[in-house]
Amino acid sequence: MSRAVFIIRDSIRGAVRDWKINFMFISVLFGAVLLSIYCIASIRFLKQDLEQARYRDIERTVEAGFFGSPLDQTAVRSVMSEGQGERVSVSGIKKMYLPALNNRSWFVLGIDESYTKYKHIEVGSGRIPAFSDESAECIIGEQCAKENDLSPGDTVRIDGIDFQIAGIAAQRRYRSYIIVPYGQTHRMGSWGSEQQTVLMTGKGLQPDRMEGLLAGKMGGSLLYCENALDLYRQNEKVIQRWIRLRAAACAIGMVFAAFNILSVCLGKIQEQKKEYLTKKVLGLTEGGVLLTFFFENFMITVLSCGLAWKAFTPLARLLDIDSVVLADGKTAAVIFILAASFSFIYSLILKVYLNRCPVIEILQEDE
User: Fold this and answer.
1) Alpha-carbon distance 43 to 252, whole Å?
2) pTM of the model
């Protein structure tokens, strides 16, 4: 029998023999890994969101938000002309009750042709339409598509207007959104005074100048008007703070699990003293003993990680946090690396501890 086969077989036997302790091992590690998956997936989502929030010429862009009626094209052209802007984008959002779409409310986001130059939109299937004022095409979120069994090419009716679905949004932040041309919001009877956003890029453009341009055209109250770069930096500080908090929670969870597992496995360590001596007598090297312990703990750790990974997706949906986490293959790879590192460190501690036990002490404990 080869050494590799012996190590693997002995590791499996050890895991089965100590199933009670290993069950406690798995239970403790399951909770810690579940917390780690959430923290890592949340950190990856926040970093991606921050990267996508920075667009070209952000330092020369002013963003204004107001509560009022949709701006018509005449007002938009006037703002751009008077402000000597290079490009401008106007968007508005409203939560609308749509009986035809699963008899529930959805966010309807109206955007213009320039919106994608400022905000990132991806589609998983289909395409991104032009979003011109005359267009009757839209993009729907993944949740909206699944609940209503819709796909690109189908038609949805929103406030008396029929829109053909051009694509399904890939980003989770848009999962409960329906994205329509901004110009069509003027034709929706239930679209009154809602939150609107104006983004304009221009040389030397300042917030006070932008505020003055919108004063007589927005038909409502101004919510904010600031440089887009300042808003990005404020958002960046908040996101970095949340990232640090999640990283700390992940580390604390794993350290807590490690101490609990070491306590749980204290009895297992005592039982493995004679087993360690037997393996040494049979000619197994120091490296072979370490590999035996590693494979046994690695199998248990991978099982815990696998169970936690399988449980995370339905749990995230149940808690309605699946739109603010990014649990994909890269997240799984990070968890796998953590599992391997955890198994190796624990096995190394176990080997060092047993290696320091004198042979006579191990034999006396068995008498």
Assistant:
1) 16
2) 0.73
